[in-house]
Design brief:
Helix content: 40-55%
Strand content: 15-25%
Strand order of the largest sheet: 5-2-1-6-7
Radius of gyration: 19 Å
Number of domains: 2
Structural class: alpha/beta
Length: 307
């Protein structure tokens, strides 16, 4: 089984290392010092699930040189979807599956516009990690799951093969019959969580102790759920309440990637979080005042710290 991991960071590197350890033929696409370290010393995953060392690791920045693969784990940042989507064309055979694992909800649609609908599945990641040094990724938490499925809701052999491969690699692969539901369920949590984290520059435990900020979280959550339902996503009626319960179960020190990116002066995925809710709300004539406020307040930081 040949797999290309496009973006060997805190998500792609972890999944790819697990699959490679289980015997899959995995090629990691990276750049800069991280790429050089993997080429010279291999890839090491450390953290709460223990240590995995892939040495030698197949790592490159030449996507066209990889050849046709069975699966593409597409793990680039949301602003890179179109650029990287064009670059992965040489990887595609007649049954290659491209699985976007970004946190937003529109990556499958954007990729299908480039590659056609055939190769693209839907997917969502449940794993947390970060590059802590070139060639080294730290995994936070022992959880690791990947959910995926065909966008037209059909059963497919390639989906079943990937589910079985994940299981052989020691983590849960969930083949969803309606993959946009888990994608949106994750989005319901991430939109208000990332927005409040970035707005306050505080970890979860600090801002959720404030009743006014907690009310903003819940309002942004319910706006997002309303927009998802208007989009035709079959969200269960209790989705917002379950999302609230999930937020309360999370550790006090939790920081989102968008909150960390803002503190580091990095580019933000804001346009595909609160900004996407605002866009879809306008399309469906659904008011989204809280997400509009979050988007407007953070917009000056979209491309990094304002000069």
């Amino acid at each position: 089984m040949r797999i290309a991991v496009i973006g060997a960071g805190g998500i792609g590197a972890i999944y790819g290392a697990s699959l490679a350890k289980a015997g899959a033929d995995v090629v990691f696409v990276a750049r800069g010092a991280h790429l050089r370290a993997m080429q010279e010393n291999g890839l090491r995953i450390e953290g709460d699930r223990g240590e995995t060392q892939i040495r030698p690791a197949q790592a490159t920045d030449d996507i066209a040189g990889i050849g046709i693969v069975d699966y593409v784990l597409f793990c680039v940042k949301l602003w890179d979807v179109e650029r990287a989507g064009e670059q992965i064309r040489p990887l595609l055979g007649h049954d290659t599956a491209v699985i976007p694992l970004q946190n937003g909800v529109d990556a499958p649609e954007r990729l299908a516009a480039i590659l056609g609908p055939g190769p693209v599945m839907g997917g969502t990641a449940f794993v947390t990690g970060a590059i802590v040094a070139p060639g080294i990724v730290h995994q936070t938490g022992a959880y690791q799951r990947m959910t995926f499925g065909e966008l037209d809701r059909r059963k497919s052999d390639r989906g079943e093969r990937l589910r079985d491969l994940c299981e052989a690699a020691g983590f849960e692969g969930v083949l969803s019959p309606d993959v946009m539901v888990p994608i949106w369920q994750k989005f319901l949590l991430l939109v208000p969580l990332a927005g409040l984290n970035a707005l306050t520059r505080l970890p979860l435990g600090k801002w959720r102790a404030d009743g006014d900020l907690l009310a903003l979280f819940e309002a942004a959550l319910r706006e997002t759920a309303a927009v998802g339902l208007a989009e035709g996503v079959h969200l269960p009626p209790d989705s917002a309440d379950k999302t609230l319960a999930t937020m309360w179960s999370m550790p006090d020190d939790h920081m989102t990637s968008m909150g960390n990116d803002l503190l580091r002066g990095n580019r933000l995925e804001l346009s595909w979080f609160a900004g996407k809710v605002v866009e879809l709300g306008r399309h469906h004539d659904i008011p989204t005042p809280v997400n509009s406020f979050v988007y407007t307040a953070l917009k000056p930081y979209t491309n990094g710290a304002p000069m």
